[in-house]
What does this fold into?
Amino acid sequence: MSSRPKFFVAREQINNNKVTLTGSDVSHIRTVLRLKAGDSIQVISDSDKWLTVRLVEVKTKEVKGEVVASVTINVESPLAVHLGQALTKGNKFDVILRKSVELGVRSITPLMTERCVVKTHRTEVGKKIERWKKIVLESSKQCGRSKIPLVAEDVETLETFCRKNDHQDLKLIFWELEEKKTLKDIKLDVQPRSVAVLIGPEGGFSQAEIENVREYGFQTVGLGPRILRAETAPVVALALLQSRWGDL
It folds into this structure.
């Protein structure tokens, strides 16, 4: 993978091998990277191709370039993992976002559950979602993703997440009190192409929540004999899923 700076752009910004970058990308190119006409960057736009783009004009409000090469890459997992992650204290949720992107997650939905210590006011949700989207974008660039994982537009309830993901091939809720079944105990006739995953907050899920999601077809699975920290559990769960049905 090239070390050139990477940028995700909308498809309409590429036309006849000409690329136009706007917004925050412009200031990043001009003032942070200090790139000039003749320098090269890498661009991707909702496809499996990284485009090598040579800068032609570097202006105050837009940067123009031309595509000089393209290479097909295959970094997206064949397993689409949709993570429902309960809100956690401090910067733990930020850490979970970054690690989830590295581990190939396809979408992330922040959840408010019974035992969430964090209480998010409606006025704060929009700002948090925007910040989380930026974290996901930056993490996608750093680890060379070809698609930016989706971040839900709102903090959702367990029930909303379950309804929205009812169509996934496999539905799992990782629960520290599940002592009998782990991921290796799940036997499937056909390899799943999509999985909805639920991970709880510091205090875990309540018995009532477990019973509720089971009604939506979610299976409880454990993550071994030790209690994992809230920010460790999703990393382990995603790594195990990618190892079994994905690309690790």
Remarks:
- The chain has two domains: 6-72, 80-245.
- The chain is about 30% helix and 25% strand.
- Residues 80-245 form a domain with the Alpha/beta knot fold (CATH 3.40.1280.10).
- The first strand starts at residue 6 and ends at 8.
